Amino acid sequence: MLIVPVFDPEDLQPLKDEISGFVDQYARSAQKDGKISELHEDKDFSHRMGYLMKEYPELSDPFDICNLRGIEMFRFMAHPKLLETLSPLFDGEIICSSVQHIRVKPPIAFTDHGYSHFNVPWHQDSGVAQPESDASLMVTVWCPLGPATAEMGCMRVIPGVRSHVVHESSDYGTRVRADLLPEAEPVVAECRDGEIVIMRQFTPHHSTPNRSSRCRWSMDLRYQKTGTPSARPWLPEFVVASKSRPETIFNDYESWCAQWENPPPKPEHLSNHRIG
Q: 52 lies in a domain?
């Protein structure tokens, strides 16, 4: 696991502006439907969603890359600074995996404690990938859109695990079976503005409640070497870098949107999560 400074604040601003636009759009729709009474337009990027979710926690439900499909989200996944950082890991041949997320973690004081899927249990990202992808390196890039502190419920990780372990279902999502979790002191992966966490698919990690007054927004992306088995082969993935075949780099935003709007059905014999 590495924590690496990659971005300047201005690099993240277009993405934050786009997310703010979606927040406003969905807030106005919720107000029209009688779900919220106040738009909280005076609140900034790190606070507004929390105040909105205090009244209507489900406002965050559509907030994922596959649903929002923002052009700045698409551009960010192939950001030159990010690809420069990742290139040595994959010899310059990189695919952005189909497992792509944007996440918001609101202050726990602003949400019903029962609505707590924001606080994920200990798991490996291999737990949401097909077994054949274990044989090759896949890295998770976790990029907070601003500082991520322990108070805000930043990730905690256990480095050094090099293989997939058994997962089980829980009320809070797929998790590593408790008796198989390594007995090691977790590393608190605090990030300053512009830093990212890079970890391989076998690194156990989880998050804790956000006890600050601000939302913790983040991008959660996966990358692998071109030609290696996909995490979820039925969903869209695309080449973001190639030294040997630059013509294969995919930068067609409209086509990317179309792929998510009409993805092929998941084969019945495959599963999103590896249980057991």
A: yes
